[in-house]
Amino acid sequence: MRILHLLNHTRRMNGHVHAAIDLACAQVELGHTVAMASQGGDFDALLQRNGIETFVVDHERRPGPVLKSMVGLTTLLRRWRPDVVHAHMMTSAVLAWPACKLTRVALVTTVHNEFEKGAILMGLGNRVIAVSAAVAKSMQKRGISAARIDVVLNGTIGSARMTGRSEVPKALDHPAIVFVGGLHPRKGLPDLLQAFDAVHAQHPAVRLYVVGDGPTLHTYAQMAREMASAAAISFTGPQDDPYPWMLGADIFVLPSHADPAPLVLSEAREAGCAVIATRVDGIPELLGQGVSGILVPPRAPDKIADALRMLVTDPSQLQAWRAKSQSDIDNLRIERVANETIAVYGRAVGRRAKRSAA
Questions:
Q1: Helices (H) and strands (E) in the chain — how many of each?
Q2: Per-residue pLDDT averaged across 265-283, rounded?
Q3: Residue 155 in contact with residue 333, Cβ under 8 Å?
Q4: How far apart are CA 277 and CA 298, in angstroms?
Q5: Cβ distance 15 to 115 under 8 Å?
């Protein structure tokens, strides 16, 4: 197939970008012809090395630029002639819908951030991919027919983006607990800080490493400085490659309040961490409903603390949960994601062809 991916940019440290880059490169590996249209960014060189043509499409939301981008995208579709356009964000879907209508190209959208109010716009696609079953249910409640929704669970293991990454574990003090993610309220880091402070009071050898950046970084760092465990908490800031921190960790914690299907859980499991995460959105699906990681309620620091105590006080439990993280881990490989997505494209193209014939 000829596949054109459309997203706002290709910059690092954005989950939807990582998912789109991984998918595009895996589709090339499967023998498809793939292009990427965006405002550009860090990953353009990687795309080009993997045989993916890149085009510039402005995603500015003001009326004038939007109209210009719609016209430019329509011209691109007529020239490049894709079988399917795959839009990964709301602005991308809005730009693609009229262009695909005019050129009679099938449009597929992926709902990466269903917690955003505008996510309903992803319903503009002929087919709508939900990155977890939880996201699919949420989109159905918003009025998108279940008949147009396909669930393709996120997974990133084996992606081209990981080629050449460091496999050397970061030298951390143990027991080492690591959080990796954007520092936004929905990620729930204050819950982990409170839980860690309680555990550290009883087990002063434990250490917490916070890897990431975001608008609440300074607020959370100040919160940590005011805790009794302040000296045991390290904020590393943003890292182009956080994988060595996960390799060096004993325990990975993701205390999210909302998280459709976080890619970081694939990496934490691949690194062999014992995983603690909240039972929200797509997280249980990425942890085998609790088989591959410990699930706790959201907004419950005491439950996170209980799980941490169990792991740091009982080496046999820690080793058992590290082993459990490998259960059915091949389901999180990018090749599975790419094959399932290609099947969605087939349904989208078939439906489009039937409508045109009618």
A1: 13, 13
A2: 98
A3: yes
A4: 9
A5: no
Q: Provide the pLDDT for residue 358.
A: 46
Strands 127-130 and 106-111: parallel
Other beta carbons within 10 angstroms of residue 240's beta carbon come to 8
Vertex 8 angle, CA 105 and 51, to 5° = 70
Percent of residues, the chain, with pLDDT higher than 90: 94
Residue pLDDT, tens place only, 88-131: 999 999 999 999 999 999 999 999 988 888 899 999 999 999 99
Residue 229 pLDDT greater than 50, yes or no: yes
**CB-CB contact of 25 with 48 (8 Å):** no
**171-176 average pLDDT score:** 98
Q: How many CA atoms lie within 13 A of 33 on its CB side?
A: 7
Instruction: Identify the three-state secondary structure at position 49.
Output: helix
Structure tokens at 194: 């409170």
Closest CA to 345 of 106, 123, 5: 106
Q: In whole angstroms, what is the distance from residue 177 CA to residue 210 CA?
A: 9
The per-residue pLDDT for 115 is: 85
| Residue ranges of E strands in the chain | 2-6, 33-38, 53-56, 84-87, 106-111, 127-130, 149-151, 176-180, 207-211, 233-237, 251-254, 274-278, 294-296
Token pair 């050449």 in the structure block, residue: 164
